[in-house]
Amino acid sequence: MSSVGKGIASASIAKLLQARGYNSTCVKADPYINVDAGTMNPTEHGEVFVTDSGDECDQDIGNYERFLNTHIGSSNYMTTGRVYQSVIERERNLEYGGKCVEVIPHIPREIIRRIECASKESNAEITTIEIGGTVGEYQNQLFLEAGRMMKLENPDDVMFVMVSYLPVPGNVGEMKTKPTQFAMRTLNSSGIQADILLARAPEPLDDRRKEKLSVFCNLTSKNIISAPDVDSIYDIPINFMKEDLDERIIEILNLPSRSQRNGELAEWREFSRKTKSFSKKIKIGVIGKYFKTGDYILGDVYVSVLHAIKHAAWAQSCNPEIEYISSDHFEGEDLDFDVLDNLDGIIVPGGFGTRGVDGIINVIRYSRERGIPLLGICYGMQLICVEYSRNVAEIMDANTEEVDENSKNLIIHVMQHQKKHLSEQKYGGTMRLGAYPCKLEIGSIAASLYTMFEVQERHRHRLEFNNNYREKLESAGLRFSGLSPDGSLVEIVEVSNHPFLVGCQFHPEFLSRPMHPHPLFHGLLSAAIIRSKKVELL
């Protein structure tokens, strides 16, 4: 089934191999026809993760970067749409020498070419390829076919790991193996026999279940790895090592063992151990637009933000209690802000469109007036500027062009070079994307947090601050502490005389790492901790 944990499993396998001394990388193959993730609805697909190169990817690329502590390149991400696009372009350029270009074998061959390219560009000795979707779906059959062909041509260099869920129905109370047996047979029908089975389940796998899976899935028991639910995804590599997953992979691929197992993952183990020892709780509210999906809450929309909060909290010896709050809650009459008073800090993440904007502006005003620490990201920074313009600089009709293009005072407007894209309806892959430099003002909060004066941060936006209003807002107390090197683009704003009210045009969450939290998130959590102590004294 989907969301069973293939992405974290892939990242964990790569992490284990990295710990064993191998240069490893990960590739994500998504079965949808979209060329990238940038045009998909976040409540359906989850977060769009942006790389340094500006690729708009599936959120699993973020997991790879966080676990491997590296930057993943564009070659490491492919979709069915991207693969077909390349094949068609090559056919139009006569690169197939006039042959009849067919789905089989040319599409799988392009998939294999991309995998080889990603491995080469990453200088990887071992590459973990995650195939999106579920076994038995028509959409990912071409990726499975590519894997089958790779195994046929390189039998000693290719192995398959299947991730399958074993449910424990509440009214039965017994872990059931039949769904996994059926899934394995479905995989076999594609010409693939898994070498290892990761048995996902609410609890550890017992010997009886291992025996049944061994018989019916054609695997030795030692290659069936228990993968129970855990409190933190950062425990998963440790659990896999306890199950000897790294040893199994090295044996199947007939690789030399490069390091002693006792010292592997030492820093990671200590990090994981420490996160469980903190008793101090910090309440952080994420005020978002995309949480609701039917009757359920979808935290995956802001998954990198949630990880960045945890990284920053753990670095300061506390555990975050994260509350997801829809911005719609703060719109209409008789507004109730009690939920904000109970928070130690607030994050307004990125987004698009008009829905929920008034609620976000109300939250920003309340946090500014009540001294609640707040970090605004991308759209969040833009709405900080709108709120400040209206309620401090007294530009009463201040707005963003995204909400009201006819406003007389567009504090936030479409970037000049984006207007042509919009007029031609070129939306996919045309925003300001990827890593750009930002210069920090000496003496600012931002500079003190980064401890440097020029940084690289990742962007994903079409609108920017309107420089025609910079002087007026500076006079009213808004500090523009981060600018593009030529001074033309506002990257960071700070509200003076406030414990922490900072907005950034970029997405700092994409660069946060488990043992290296992002400076801006670290700053927010520091201010939140100070607020929590003051509240305790009251």
Written description of the protein model:
By secondary structure, this protein is an alpha/beta fold. The chain has two domains: 6-158, Rossmann fold (3-Layer(aba) Sandwich), CATH 3.40.50; 278-537, 3-Layer(aba) Sandwich (Rossmann fold), CATH 3.40.50. Helix 1 runs parallel beside helix 3 and helix 1 (6-19) crosses helix 9 (236-242). The chain is globular and about 75 Å long. The two termini are 49 Å apart.
At the fourth level of CATH, the homologous superfamily of the largest domain is Class I glutamine amidotransferase (GATase) domain
- Give the second-level CATH assignment, the architecture of the largest domain: 3-Layer(aba) Sandwich
**Could you name the CATH class of the largest domain?**
Alpha Beta
Average pLDDT, to the nearest integer? 92
Helix-strand makeup class: alpha/beta
Largest sheet: 9 strands, mixed
Using only C-alpha atoms, the radius of gyration works out to 25 Å
First-last Cα distance: 49 Å
Low-confidence stretches: none
Order the strands across the largest sheet as they lie in space.
12-9-13-14-22-21-20-17-18
The 3D shape can be described as: globular
Strand-residue proportion: 15-25%
Give me the CATH fold name of the largest domain: Rossmann fold
Number of helices: 19
Tally of extended strands? 22
Helix content: 25-40%
For the record, the count of structural domains works out to 2
